[in-house]
């Protein structure tokens, strides 16, 4: 690279001073007042841009040549991309974008001019082959399966988790999707029954898993698993019905026993009414005796109170319990 001239150093210093950066790889180019790279300045001194080369080739060949054609012809002949350098920034569709300027030497332009007819014919043959290939692919029907990416938030602690999703394809070869695996019609029919299957980690759909033997084995195992689940569901349903019947029988037995005790209580009501139950309850609690019996007993329990009634009346505990829970007991506190 040639030594930096005094003028160039002044431009670099002006750029660094204006943008407050020590980067001297960028400077203002003379005449255009635009920020470009150092190599851009050096290349512009002894090489021509792609646009200038297109004008030169147009005069030399007598055919209309565009800058895009120059880059294409250059790559076809030299098998590499045209030399380019940073030519500043501009506002693109994705925001601030770096510009590029392509340069060619006099020798390279002369070489392209000497082989222009050959390169044009080669490009025409390439375009014809490409169109023929596209036509063949459009007319060729393929079938198979492929996978696409998807994600959810079911990972550890709700983290994002990526996975592959199985999809089926049946159409022309030209629009064949990425990650495509061809198969026959029978295999595709089996694939369509499991479209949407998820593959985690390094797993991905393979042709072997849709073979008839393996697919039938998976279907058999799935049917057995579903049969076991259905049998277990029926067993649990029968067990639940059995428990409900037993609970209903126990409740009916308890209700019959309570009615029997109430009947005995009615038969021995005279003995029970003769017991002075009012004196068993403190005077301050007699206004709400039910609350006292259920919540306010301090020195003894509700069972001990019923036992006292049973001892005083000489009757069974369950009979006295029915009496305490009846209105006959509460009426004594209303008198």
Structure classification: alpha+beta
Number of DSSP E strands: 9
Q: In which order are the strands of the major sheet placed?
A: 8-6-7-9
Q: What is the 3D form?
A: elongated
Mean pLDDT: 84
Number of helices: 13
Please tell me how large the radius of gyration is. 48 Å
- Stretches where pLDDT falls below 50 for ≥5 residues? 1-24, 28-32
> Major sheet, described briefly?
4 strands, antiparallel
What percentage of amino acids are in beta strands?
15-25%
Helix and strand pattern? HEEHEHHEEHHEEEHEHHHHHH
Counted up, domains total: 5
Brief account:
The protein has 335 residues and is an alpha+beta fold. The chain has 13 helices and nine strands. It has five domains: 1-46, no CATH class; 49-83 and 98-139, no CATH class; 145-210, no CATH class; 221-261; 268-331, no CATH class.
What does this protein look like?
The chain has about 325 residues and is α+β, with helices and mostly antiparallel strands. It folds into five domains: about 45 residues, no CATH class; about 80 residues, no CATH class; about 70 residues, no CATH class; about 40 residues; about 60 residues, no CATH class. It is about 55% helix and about 15% strand. The chain is built from 13 helices and nine strands. A four-stranded antiparallel β-sheet has the order 8-6-7-9. The longest helix is centred in the last third of the chain and has 56 residues. The radius of gyration is 48 Å and the shape is elongated. The termini are far apart.
